[in-house]
Amino acid sequence: MRFMLIVLISVFALLGPVAAQDSAADPRASTGGAQTLEDILARQAGQAMDDSFRSDAIGDPARAASKTDQLGTLGGVSDPELWRALRYGKADITTQSRGPAAKTLIQDGGMWWLEFRQGPLLTYGSYLLGGTLLLLALFYLIRGRIRIDGEKTGRKIERFKAFERFGHWLLASSFLVLGLTGLISLFGRKVMIPTFGHDAFSTIAIGSKWVHNNISWAFIVALVIIFVVWVVHNLPDRTDLNWLAKGGGIFSKGHPPAKKFNAGQKLIFWSVIILGGSISLTGLSLLFPFDLQLFGPTFAKLNAIGAPGWFGMADLSATLSPQEEMQFAQLWHAIVSLVLIAIVFAHIYIGSVGMEGAFDAMGTGQVEEQWAREHHSLWVDEVTAQKPATTTKEA
Amino acid sequence: MKAFLVAIGAAVFITVCANLILKQINFSAEATTASPNARVGTDG
């Protein structure tokens, strides 16, 4: 009896270290190599993990016993191994449909995109747009309308020629329609379906998509027009520093001197050109799916200069599936558009209710001379010195 | 506001024309992504 007890204690004492060695050597020994509960939880929590134990487990037809042998099989790949090969893009696929994305049958990254698109993108997007409108309303309540300080002269100066105004309004009208139809596409499922129902939303969504896709060309044309016409006047110069330092005179009496465009307007101009250009590029990528690869090559260039490391991140994946390219394009298109819409809200405010006399610049093209002297004094000096007879006239 | 009205007209014109032209030259999103199904052919 004592002997049996000693043997039992010895066996249990030895089992512990042996089991520990096993688990240290193969953490998935308990599941026979399959994923453990920890793996599943880590994946669900979105943690980075080495899942080569799954991606490499796709079978090996070369090792299969011939079907003419005893206990031979019809192949060396089991069903789970085939599904894993499909998931990790390692399966040899032949499809009836053609096209670059036809052979990607399972795409894990799509879930990340879908969750982000349905969650944070909508939440923070609505915060951004709603917050901007709220801030503008508060600003209006605190500051009120920016009036023309001096006495009006009754004389008008031509601020923008007809072609400049045409370019501005072409850009503005197409952008407003693009913004509206884009927001319908982005928020429609969450906001409009509960309100109008599926049938009505279907018609609205199809119409929005057609308009959004086709009016985009008008936006691109207008973007080129305003760039060509106004880029010379929007190059930064010394007066901009002074203008910015004084906050454009928004909260003080008097306005800092400015040329045709002040620093605030230049910021709007370059925001529209850079963000609008970026939106156009990603829009073209979405308009002609899989033709324009933007993000894979960009990520490769960022990796080459070590940009991800500056933020403590690992290298970005430069090898993207066709669907991932589209998903990144969609997210970038939406995020940059939301930012530009917020900026344009501020632009619309200051160009209409926010400032007396500002709308005339784009309405008739003729502005009150006193307004021009207060907001663009250097420009007025320049214009009146060049063409005093034609630029000023009695109203 | 003449420039505004002309711009609105131009936006509509460009929108309609872009759609027609892209469809005409088979360069629409639909045309570039669609492909004949392997099972649907003229030879039956």
Which terms would index this structure?
heterodimer, A: 395 residues, mainly alpha, Fumarate Reductase Cytochrome B subunit, 2 domains, three-stranded antiparallel beta sheet, 17 helices, 63% helix, disordered C terminus, B: 44 residues, 2 helices, 0% strand, rod-shaped
Largest sheet of chain B: none
Helix content of chain A: 55-70%
Within the CATH hierarchy, at the fold level, what is the topology of the largest domain in chain A? Fumarate Reductase Cytochrome B subunit
CA gyration radius of chain B, whole angstroms = 18 Å
In CATH, the homologous superfamily of the largest domain in chain A goes by the name Transmembrane di-heme cytochromes, Chain C
GO biological process, one term (chain A): respiratory electron transport chain
Subcellular location (chain A): Cell membrane
Organism (chain A): Litoreibacter halocynthiae
Main location (chain A): membrane
Topology at a glance:
The complex is a heterodimer of chains A (395) and B (44).
Chain A: H1 2-25, H2 37-44, H3 52-55, H4 79-87, H5 109-118, H6 120-143, E1 155-158, H7 162-196, H8 198-230, H9 238-245, H10 263-287, H11 295-304, H12 307-310, H13 322-351, H14 360-363, E2 366-368, H15 369-375, H16 377-386, H17 388-391, E3 392-394
Antiparallel strand pairs in A: 1-2, 1-3
Helix pairs in contact in A: 5-13, 6-13, 7-8, 8-10, 10-13, 15-16
Chain B: H1 2-24, H2 29-33
Summarize the structure.
Chain A: One of its GO terms (cellular component) is formate dehydrogenase complex. The complex is a heterodimer of chains A (395) and B (44). Chain A has 395 residues and is an all-alpha fold.
Provide an overview of this structure:
- The complex is a heterodimer of chains A (395) and B (44).
- Chain A has 17 helices and three strands.
- In chain A, 21% of the residues are buried.
- A three-stranded antiparallel sheet of chain A has the order 2-1-3.
- Helix content of chain A is 63%, strand content 3%.
- By secondary structure, chain A is mainly alpha-helical.
- Residues 18-23 and 391-395 of chain A have low confidence and may be disordered.
- Chain A is elongated, with a radius of gyration of 32 Å.
- Chain A starts with a helix and ends with a strand.
- Chain A has two domains: 27-111, no CATH class; 112-393, Transmembrane di-heme cytochromes, Chain C (Fumarate Reductase Cytochrome B subunit).
- Chain B is mainly alpha-helical and 44 residues long.
- Chain B has two helices and no strands.
- Chain B has helices spanning 2-24, 29-33.
- The relative contact order of chain B is 0.09.
- At the A-B interface, α7 and α8 of A face α1 and α2 of B.
